[in-house]
Amino acid sequence: MSAISERDVLSAVAAAASPRSAYIGDEVQKMHAKAVKAGGKGHTPTTVLILRRLRSLEKFGFLECVGGPDGYYGFEWRITDAGRKELEGRGP
């Protein structure tokens, strides 16, 4: 994982224990660690980069922000119908 994509972050939202930014970030970190262990290169994704990808997914209509910042846990996100289709490989 040399660069984190919107698709990676969307998958992390689906896999997260809770749809809060902190848990999504944990999933992205796990994905990155797994990729590095398999021989991938790249810097660990920062919280800022992950939030930027989340906001980008929101603009594309794949996610919606349904809760404001909550201290450490961050924003709450919900996958839209378009986001589910994208995850299933039927997206635009």
Task: Describe the fold and architecture.
This protein is mainly α and 92 residues long. Strands 1-2 form a two-stranded antiparallel ribbon. α1 (6-15) crosses α2 (21-37). It has helices spanning 6-15, 21-37, 47-60, 81-87; strands at 63-67, 76-79. The chain is globular, with a radius of gyration of 13 Å.
Quick gist of this model?
The relative contact order is 0.21. With 92 residues, the protein is mainly alpha-helical. The longest helix is centred in the first third of the chain and has 17 residues.
Features:
single chain; 92 residues; two-stranded antiparallel sheet; 4 helices; globular
Secondary-structure blueprint:
Blueprint: H1 6-15, H2 21-37, H3 47-60, E1 63-67, E2 76-79, H4 81-87
Antiparallel strand pairs: 1-2
Overall average pLDDT: 89
The computed structural class is mainly alpha
Helix tally? 4
Major beta sheet summary: 2 strands, antiparallel
Low-confidence stretches: none
Alpha-carbon distance between the termini? 23 Å
Overall, the morphology is globular
Q: Strand content of the residues, in percent?
A: 5-15%
How many whole angstroms does the radius of gyration measure? 13 Å
Provide the succession of SSEs.
Answer: HHHEEH
Query: Got a strand count?
Result: 2
Strand order of the largest sheet: 1-2
Percent of residues in helices comes to 40-55%
